[in-house]
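Input (structure):
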């Protein structure tokens, strides 16, 4: 009887120790899960912030493209008829180009956004760079401008290759009329060139910290 009484406290102490160890393991796992959850949330929030900043930086590409178009129109006294590859300007819509690089598996139809990108014989567009002083620190941006036409040359005229040039235009037939566009087999074009504005599609690619990449696209009427 006395021997049993002496051994009983030892049994109780062993159970308490085992219970405490289990509790410590559970608390440790919970702590690790909490830390990982916080780290994941912080990473996601950071990535979203970088992507949002990259999208906002895309406005710099739009502004740079608009300034180039307006400068060329002012200098030439009219519309820009022909492709200027060095300036990222293309007088055709280049519908076969994969502007974001995610539509097809091939890189041959991509835009060459950066100097190290592979050749793109199926697209043949090279982007122009946005000046660093127009961008937030750590971001780079390049853009391409597409005049929404099927060929180089004057709208409703003839291209150097003898093709009839049809363009997508913004049209107002009178001050009180509804805005409208008419369709041809190559896209929209104006029925009245005197009251129309050519459409230019500007696509900007922005790269930023933490591998953030964003594409911004706008259509300008001028």
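Output (sequence):
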């Amino acid at each position: 009887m006395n021997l049993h009484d002496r051994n009983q406290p030892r049994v109780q102490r062993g159970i308490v120790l085992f219970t405490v160890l289990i509790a410590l393991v559970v608390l440790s796992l919970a702590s690790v899960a909490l830390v990982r959850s916080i780290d994941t949330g912080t990473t996601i929030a950071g990535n979203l912030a970088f992507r949002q900043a990259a999208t906002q930086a895309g406005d710099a590409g739009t502004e740079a493209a608009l300034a180039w178009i307006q400068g060329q129109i002012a200098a030439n006294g009219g519309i820009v008829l022909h492709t200027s590859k060095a300036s990222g300007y293309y007088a055709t819509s280049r519908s076969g180009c994969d502007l974001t690089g995610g539509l097809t598996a091939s890189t041959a139809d991509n835009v060459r956004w950066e100097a190290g990108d592979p050749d793109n014989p199926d697209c043949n567009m090279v982007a122009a760079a946005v000046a660093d002083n127009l961008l937030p620190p750590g971001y780079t941006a390049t853009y391409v401008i597409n005049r929404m036409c099927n060929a180089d040359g004057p709208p409703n005229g003839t291209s150097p290759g003898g093709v009839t040039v049809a363009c997508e235009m913004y049209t107002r037939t009178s001050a009180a009329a509804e805005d409208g566009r008419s369709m041809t087999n190559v896209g929209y074009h104006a029925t009245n060139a005197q009251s129309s504005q050519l459409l230019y599609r500007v696509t900007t690619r922005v790269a930023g910290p933490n591998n953030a990449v964003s594409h911004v696209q706008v259509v300008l009427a001028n």
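Notes: The chain is about 35% helix and 20% strand. The first helix runs from residue 2 to 76.
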